[in-house]
Amino acid sequence: MKVLSLSAEGYRNLASVSLCPDEGVNVICGDNAQGKTNLIEAIWNFTGAKSFRPSKERDFVKKGERVATLSLSFSAQGREQSAKLRYGERREILLNGVSKASPAELAGSFCCVVFSPAHLSIVKEGPSVRRRFLDGAICQVRPRYIHVLYQYKKALSQKNAVLKELYKNGAAYDLLDVFDDSIAVWGAQVWRTRVRYLNKLGQNACSIYEGLSSRREELTVGYKSFLSLSPDTPLPQVQAAYREALRAARTDDTGAGFSTLGVHRDDFSLQIDGLDAKVYGSQGQQRSAALALKLAEGYLLKEVSGETPVMLLDDVMSELDQGRQSYVLNHLEGAQVFITCCDAGHFEGLLSGRVFRMERGALSPA
Ligand SMILES: Nc1ncnc2c1ncn2[C@@H]1O[C@H](COP(=O)(O)OP(=O)(O)OP(=O)(O)O)[C@@H](O)[C@H]1O
């Protein structure tokens, strides 16, 4: 998967941008607030996913303008393809000349993985952020998982409604068995899918981390759950173990008035040389761990689609030492990479690729 060209008109602070990138590494360098992330976001929009920043579609249109247009030419599935997005007045989404009703219909045609400073939260914050990352990554490679998660959440909220009622006036106790059965059926699938995916993700992330740290540090990733079973355990056995655990937690649940146990409280651990990365990791180690997970996510996407997604790395270099920067610049094999940075020193070690300068929304070769 490669971007062949991108043009932007009226998009955020970008001037008329026309980008012809390298097949490998592209560095976009510039001071703060010049438009580097806006350019990365413009590319990302063609994945059909929501922006990786907390913004709305109407924010894409440059202040004072009525329309923003993005055009992308890319290679995928062995052929050249095109897509166009027009925001604001006369909104339009085109893929290979065919009109689409929503950006979501572009999903799967053009694939990217993005790393932005917000992804540091995977390491630095609580279990819910890691669960969201894990579930989001799985949904990309196993679309049926969306249905499984939905069914689990539905059963869980039904059970929670009963527990709340029970907590207040002691009614409907036997309904809990019904919902626990349903939770065990769907929860076991969530558990097994996550454990299997995380095993693969962890292996990939560990070898990327090994490269980033020049083999000086070791990252280990492990799923944390109330169930301690092998990922190869047949599903009926996982369901039975799940049901049993729910039964054992019944007193806690009724006392608390909500479900105290289940995959909705699972987590995964990230350790660097045996120490919890969240608690003991340095800034550079935490950034390296988050980056390794995101890059691993990209390489796992390739296993399914057959193509390495475009890697968009926003502000990845700060806090990384020279060895780590050099790995990002020169060792992401097979991928087209876009890297933003503020400091020209950050790409001194670039062996091959193209460097662009972003200044007040205008892009030029450096
Ligand atoms: N719709 C818009 N119209 C005009 N300007 C906008 C719009 N949306 C964002 N901007 C401006 O774009 C500028 C550049 O933002 P961007 O996030 O791309 O900067 P950056 O080069 O990545 O900076 P940093 O290195 O600080 O992350 C900001 O000053 C912002 O106010």
From TrEMBL:
PANTHER family: DNA REPLICATION AND REPAIR PROTEIN RECF. Its main location: cytoplasm. Coiled coil: none annotated. It holds the Pfam family SMC_N. Belongs to the RecF family. The keyword DNA-binding applies. GO terms for biological process: DNA replication; DNA synthesis involved in DNA repair; double-strand break repair; SOS response. It comes from Bittarella massiliensis (ex Durand et al. 2017). The RecF protein is involved in DNA metabolism; it is required for DNA replication and normal SOS inducibility. RecF binds preferentially to single-stranded, linear DNA. It also seems to bind ATP. It is found in: Cytoplasm. It comes from the Bacteria. This is DNA replication and repair protein RecF. GO terms for molecular function: ATP binding; single-stranded DNA binding. Keywords: ATP-binding, Cytoplasm, DNA damage, DNA repair, DNA replication, DNA-binding, Nucleotide-binding, SOS response. GO terms for cellular component: cytoplasm. Residues 5-349 form the RecF/RecN/SMC N-terminal domain. ATP binds at residues 30-37. The keyword Transmembrane does not apply.
